[in-house]
């Protein structure tokens, strides 16, 4: 999806990560899978990853805010630039 190379333009993605239950992990540490794809009951696992466009990015931030999630100011400002 992304590489270590710097892109000419900003890209956006929606990435969903499964976090293992509290009783099967050490809080504050990431349990990396021993081998892909990993076990969501024991490891942090990428459930889905997809590119999104600028309007999709803005819509995702609006949804997050509506759900009461904290959205960093820098992301809010980027979304405002998309809307304009």
Walk me through this protein's architecture.
With about 80 residues, this protein is an alpha+beta fold. It folds into two domains: about 10-50, no CATH class; about 55-84, no CATH class. It has helices at about 55-65, 75-84, and strands at about 10-20, 45-50. The protein has a two-stranded antiparallel sheet with strand order 1-2. It is globular.
As a percent range, the share of strand residues is 15-25%
Distance between the termini: 27 Å
Alpha carbon gyration radius: 16 Å
Helical content (DSSP H or I, runs of 4+): 25-40%
Question: Please, how many helices?
Answer: 2
Number of domains: 2
Q: What multimeric state do the chains show? A: single chain
* Overall pLDDT: 84
Shape: globular
| Biggest sheet statistics | 2 strands, antiparallel
Strand order of the largest sheet: 1-2
Total number of strands: 2
Question: Secondary-structure element order, as H and E?
Answer: EEHH
List descriptors:
84 residues; alpha+beta; 2 domains; 2 helices
């Amino acid at each position: 999806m992304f590489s270590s190379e710097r892109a000419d333009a900003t890209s956006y993605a929606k990435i969903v990560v499964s976090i293992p239950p509290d009783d099967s992990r050490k809080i504050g540490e990431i349990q990396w899978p021993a081998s892909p794809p990993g076990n969501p009951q024991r490891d942090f696992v990428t459930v889905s990853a997809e590119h999104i466009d600028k309007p999709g990015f803005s819509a995702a931030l609006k949804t997050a805010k509506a759900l009461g999630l904290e959205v960093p100011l820098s992301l809010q400002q980027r979304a405002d630039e998309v809307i304009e």
